[in-house]
Amino acid sequence: MIPDALQVFSISQRPTVSGSLPDGTVVSSNSARYHRAHSGDTSGWQLLSGRLPGTVRHDTGVNMNAVFAHLPVMLEQISDVFSDMNDGVFLDATLGGAGHSTAILTAHPKVSLLGIDQDDMALESAEQVLAAAGCSGRVALRRARFDAAALIAAKEGIGALSGALFDLGVSSPQFDVAERGFSYRFDAPLDMRMDRSQTLSADVIVNTYDEDALTSMLRRNADERHAYRIAKAIIAARPIHSTARLSDVVSSAIPAPARRRGGHPAKRTFQAIRIEVNAELEILPGALRNVISLLAPGARLAVLSYHSGEDRIVKSVMRSAETGDCDCPPNLPCGCGAVRSVVRVRAPRDASRAELTRNPRSSSARLRVVEKIAVEGRE
């Protein structure tokens, strides 16, 4: 059961912005992959008031003090994927700052949005952005993990989706706000919870998992070659309660030649712990399958992943839906009764060179797209 799965958020404080920003920039208080803006002018912003029927509103009490200018990853490619989308409900299962959803709603005035995110700060930010774009009357925001999408859609009476998007991974504010405890760049308490109401945190994992559990987690979630050495070092150094201390322990456990290549030596360990805290890989296959089942014929699912573990799962789920798990020889008619539900859509898988220049954090993005077929079955 996901706590507060049906919350909708209202904003009590408007963001402020000054200076000029590039066309297409989304200003928000929390979103994926963006850069900080300055405080000042409040013109053009309004509170979100519209929502889909049957929603309940709750104020979070979170003050939004920082404002960000957000360039959504692969926005042009995502917009192209959904350019011919039919009217209906679009699902953004990882809403963040709503950069992608704002563009899609703007291009499709008869499409409504069901936006899901487990981070309360992200929902507040997204609400501001959508309000500023004039999309208020077509928006319902829910606080939940993305694996609750099918349950939420059912409670809303949504029988089929016109499109769906998953933009996986962690958002920049979660990295860049020290007290969230996601980054080895700051000295802060170990946390890494996207949903700050849950009890499992990085501190719990680092200080309670045994050697086998730590080693397995590091290998499973980050393909860490030195998992065993790191696990032994963590246990020997306990208690560990800060990001800086964990970073030092991990770095000292990795052989010197390995520390000099491949980025920060603690990068994979922090990734593995974050994934474990938020069950990111564990919940992904079921969430994707459930959303595929909700797509209307002709509707598309687009997924942006940011590391090999995510992409392997996305590719596997999409391939399974495309083939129906058929095990017949590829050059012969299907005789096993497999039923396929989607076809792959050819789309650029990586960010353009121009985008990489504007937004270096898009360098690891990988886009995969499928489209629901009208008649299920193997041709």
Describe the fold and architecture.
With 379 residues, this protein is of the alpha/beta class. The chain folds into two domains: 7-173 and 281-372, Rossmann fold (3-Layer(aba) Sandwich); 178-278, Putative methyltransferase TM0872, insert domain (DNA polymerase, domain 1, Orthogonal Bundle). Helix content is 36%, strand content 18%. It has 14 helices and 14 strands. It has helices spanning 75-81, 99-107, 120-132, 149-155, 172-176, 202-208, 211-222, 227-237, 243-253, 256-259, 267-278, 280-294, 308-323, 353-358; strands at 7-10, 17-18, 26-28, 34-36, 38-41, 56-59, 68-70, 88-92, 111-117, 139-143, 161-167, 295-305, 342-344, 366-372. It has a seven-stranded mixed sheet with strand order 10-9-8-11-12-14-13, with helices on both faces. A three-stranded antiparallel sheet has the order 3-7-4. A two-stranded parallel sheet has the order 1-6. α12 (280-294) runs parallel beside α13 (308-323). The protein is globular and about 55 Å long.
